[in-house]
Amino acid sequence: ARNGARTLLVERYGFLGGMVTSALVGPLQTFHAGDQQIVTGLAQELIDRLHEIGGTLGHVRDMIGFVSTVTPVDVEKTKYVLQEMCKMSGVELQLHTLVIGVEKDAEDRISGLRLFNKSGESVVRAHVYIDCTGDGDVLAQAGVPFEKGRKKDGLAQPMTMIFRMGGVDLKRVREYMEQHPDEFVLAPDWRNIPHVAVSGFFSLVAKAKQEKRLTVDRDRVLFFELPNEGEVTVNMTRVIRYDATEGKALSEAEVIGRRQVMEVIRFLQRDIPGFASSYLINCGTQIGVRES
Q1: Cα Rg of the chain (Å, integer)
Q2: Alpha carbon distance 248, 145 (integer Å)
Q3: Counting beta carbons within 10 angstroms of the beta carbon of residue 58, is it exposed (0 to 12), middle (13 to 18) or buried (19 or more)?
Q4: In the list 7, 32, 242, 273, which could disulfide-bond 1, CB 3.0-4.6 Å?
Q5: How far is Cα of residue 12 from the mean position of the Cα atoms in its chain?
Q6: 93-130 pLDDT, tens per residue?
Q7: Whole-angstrom Cα distance, residue 169 to residue 80?
């Protein structure tokens, strides 16, 4: 749109951002390779605009040491910034709209997309169609060859219902880490990194699993500090052997994911230092899909 093309963006939800905002997949990682920033452009513009309204801490060192930097964002402010970037660029937004099929011409090229929203069914025609669904829905509907999952059995990576918690005492979390550093995956200079990221509490997880109070197929607690004080995003649920492109399976995965969230919350509040007074803020609008 900024280059002058008339552009329509079709989005199934009432907001933009994909997995970042609909599934709470965060923090963003990573904008850097070592000390060199390798992701710039529109992505960096998003971060700059978010920073102006207090929606991100910016790029911070990864305490876990898995990547060079992580970039926590406030998902509600991210929704706002993304829509404003599109509108100021001249993008026409069509929210709450699904692509339900494609039309093709005599040369087997896409000639139109069939859309459905509250106004009913319609057809949109364009010179270029860009499939940003993540699952490749438009390509699949157009008959383009594709592969799904791993070759031997078609299984994909697990899905995760990510959730946000508030009221977390991150000072208490740090104290425990200082006392039990062998319980965590840590960057060599983790004590100098102000932003809290946790991959660990291995023995506490193992104890809860042994006592059958935690049944989720995970060996660790994984969470990251968010821009607002005392808020973290938790990545601990695992929904395994479900196909994100099959309607019934995706529905069942959502149900299982939320059940796991409630189980994990009970465990965190009871067993993990710093979570005694914590509370659930929200789960993703949809389960997070890694692969399909």
Answers
A1: 21
A2: 23
A3: middle
A4: 7
A5: 16
A6: 999 999 999 999 999 999 999 999 999 999 999 999 99
A7: 29
pTM score: 0.94
Query: Which residues, at least 6 apart from 73, have a Cβ–Cβ distance to it below 8 Å?
Result: 20, 26, 27, 28, 47, 50, 55, 56, 227
Q: Which residue do the tokens 């207090």 mark?
A: 54
Extract the tokens encoding 240. 């395994």
Question: Rounded CA gap, 119 and 121, in Å?
Answer: 7
Contact assessment for residue 63 and residue 195, using Cβ atoms and an 8 Å cutoff: yes
Q: Give the rounded percent of residues in the chain with a pLDDT score beyond 90.
A: 100
Residues 6 or more apart in contact with residue 6 via CB below 8 angstroms: 92
- Closest C-alpha among 279, 272, 278 to residue 176: 272
Pick the closest to residue 168 from 288, 55, 272, 35 (CA basis).
Answer: 272
Model pLDDT, residue 281: 97
φ/ψ (deg, to 5) at 96: 50, 40
Alpha-carbon distance of 225 to 276, in angstroms, equals: 17
Spatial separation of the C-alpha atoms in residues 248 and 74, rounded to whole Å: 31
Dihedral (Cα; 193, 48, 224, 264), 10-degree rounding: 170
Q: Are 47 and 41 in contact, with CB atoms under 8 Å apart?
A: no
Residue 210: both structure tokens together? 């042994």
